[in-house]
Amino acid sequence: MTAKNTVCLWYNGDAEEAARFYAETFPDSAVTGIRRAPADNPSNREGDVLVVEFTVFGIPCIGLNGGPAFAHSEAFSFQIATDDQAETDRYWNAIVGNGGEESMCGWCKDKWGISWQITPRVLTEAMANPDPAAAKRAFEAMMEMRKLDVATIEAALADG
Predict the structure, then answer these.
(1) Order of all β-strands in the sheet with 107-109
(2) What is the pTM of this model?
(3) What is the pLDDT of residue 2?
């Protein structure tokens, strides 16, 4: 059954490669369908992969091989909540180590230009802390990081 709401991501001919990487990297992720172009079009030849259906952590997605007309930006990102430093490291290193690039505050970008926020739950919980000083310390610690460090966030919370 097709989902009522699906995230559609635009790729320049490499949607299948991206979907397979996501399926291999993240649990509850899979390539669920490949649709080929039924006829020539501005971005594909008949028989080329046009659409790849996949899930990322259970979220239904479509990768559309639409050509070079549009590029990804940080205006869209996947936010992955992690339980500990090992999980944070695993996802961050998989994305960055596969041709991606680091950014700030837990953000990185995969080699296809999709942005990811690899966010330990301890940070999300810290931001909701009823003590505004604790939330501020955790936030300020995060602002200095690229890949988020759970121990540093926990230490910032405890500094009060």
Answers:
(1) 77-82, 115-120, 107-109, 101-102
(2) 0.94
(3) 74
